[in-house]
Amino acid sequence: MIRRLLRVMGDDAPVLRRLITLTVVCAILQGVAFSLLVPLVQALLEGDFQQLWLWIGVEAAILAGFGILNYRTKMLGLTSSMALTAHLWQRLGDHISKLPLGWFNAEKVGSVSRLTSSGVFSVTGFPTQMLGTLVNAFVTPAVVIVLMFLFEWRLALVALIAAPIVWGAYRGTVAIVDYVDLRTHSANTRTANRIIEFAQTQPILRAFGRVSKGYKLLDEALVAQRKADNSMITWGGAIGDGMFRLTVQGAFTAILLSGIALGVGSSIGATELIALLILATRFVQPLMDGAAAGGGVRTVRNNLNRMDHIFHTKPLSETADAGQATLGDPAVSFEAVRFGYDKREILHDITFTAQARTMTALVGPSGAGKTTITRLVARFWDISSGVVKVAGVDVRDMTAEQLMSQLSFVFQDVYLFSGTIRENVLMARPDATEEELKNAIRLARVDEIANRLAHGLDTQVGEGGSALSGGERQRVSIARAILKDAPIVLLDEATAALDAENEALVQEALHALTTDRTLIVVAHRLQTIAAADQIIFLEQGNIVEWGTHQKLIKADGRYADFWRERSRSLGWRLGSRAKIQE
């Protein structure tokens, strides 16, 4: 584990090395100080004050050196902890920022959130809270055993025999804590995810009267967490820690009985026996302290394992020449693209080109792969084979910044960050002028929202935009895209669930956004589909048909069937019960 921490600290690794060295020296001095209690106590009990003052002076010198080194160790521990915190957050942040956007599902977000908070603090607490205790638990007793051979080899031999037994008990305790910690971490992560889900789905839960009766998934997660926490207390605390302490006390009892046997047999004197038994108590104390640190050390190791799992997740790769290619017209092309999740292929040999400043509509039944195509343009994932090009350049030959500069997004799931309307729009381009901001807000019809609110653009939107309606969130999202002014727009139309007024306003905003831009739209509205320069009909991950609306209607294939079905559904009306009965 120390080697892993040294790797994480990088250039600051020498600080941790010095800390470990000083901690070991302090533990050795502590063991020597404990051992010298034997001649000191003997001189005291025998009334040899000349020897007594000599040993008191030696002890004082050793303790003074220990105090100075211990202070230096504490300061180095704080320095190491702060350096470790900075390196872990930076390394995790740098790596997570390079992971595919599709990697961030709800479960992973909860796990990463827990790991980057309590997990990081658990690891960075090791230099200040656990390292010294752990080193003392092994180095100090070892020094005591070695020096005990100078005073009474038979008691030292008993302690030496007990050492591997105590070590075995320690390993058993660590194994128990390891198992329970894994269960507890999983339970805590599930609970965190369910709490977030519970908060975000309040409108739905209340609509169906599920709040007063509880939320089954959250209830189950809380019960599982309580059981896991109880297991940690029972197994990790009572059983694991108790087993180790019982073994240590057994070792001490063996040394005590051996000493009494030697004293009864007159093999050693009474004063020497008393001094040696005092030393035996000092042999036991660091071991007892180590029992408490053992579980914490295993928790640190488990968190490092979880971090390594993230670090070993393959990030989006960039070629050596990434960002060097000259971008052409804002076209998008797929060339024999295949893609799948978890070895299950979703898209099969997709080939098409969305020419610059044209509209390409992606149409087809749910699950056909329409949204996946828009995500691949933005490189949420890397494809299995083929090529995705934006502005004539393979997306793998572009830096993330270069690719994102070409794209604007308006998806169904609009997320606004906690803050004001103004701050959410300016996220697209923080250096935008006030005139540019006002223009984007006007074109997206966000001014209509601001005029109705007491604080205008400085109104707080709430977490995820919860203070605004769905249509209002969409318009803020569109304003953000307009302000970014990217040449390619990826649009997942989301007006089906809006009322007529909001739908009209959103459509006006979309018209302002898509003017003179390359548009790839997952189309739901018939008007949008018919107006497209190119329609691609997808089914089960394959392009079944493509062409203009008129061409596909004349072909009378799957698209024509889809069109007729949607047209009929728009003609449905709800009549009165009397008319239905007639």
Report on the architecture of this protein:
The relative contact order is 0.08. This protein has three domains: about 1-310, ABC transporter type 1, transmembrane domain (ABC transporter transmembrane region fold); about 325-405 and about 490-495 and about 520-575, 3-Layer(aba) Sandwich (Rossmann fold), CATH 3.40.50; about 410-485, Rossmann fold. The protein has about 575 residues and is α/β, with parallel strands linked by helices. The protein has 21 helices and ten strands. Helices cover about 65% and strands about 10% of the residues. It is elongated, with a radius of gyration of 35 Å. The strands form two sheets. A six-stranded mixed beta sheet has the order 6-7-8-3-9-10, sandwiched between helices.
Gyration radius over CA: 35 Å
Low-confidence stretches: 573-582
Instruction: State the domain count.
Output: 3
What is the SS-derived class? alpha/beta
Q: CATH homologous superfamily of the largest domain?
A: ABC transporter type 1, transmembrane domain
Instruction: Give the total of beta strands.
Output: 10
Total DSSP helices: 21
- Termini separation comes to 80 Å
> Which band does the percent of strand residues land in?
5-15%
Strand order of the largest sheet: 6-7-8-3-9-10
Tell me about the biggest sheet?
6 strands, mixed
Average per-residue pLDDT, rounded, comes to: 79
CATH topology of the largest domain: ABC transporter transmembrane region fold
Coarse shape: elongated
CATH classification class of the largest domain: Mainly Alpha
Helix content: 55-70%
Can you tell me the CATH architecture of the largest domain? Up-down Bundle
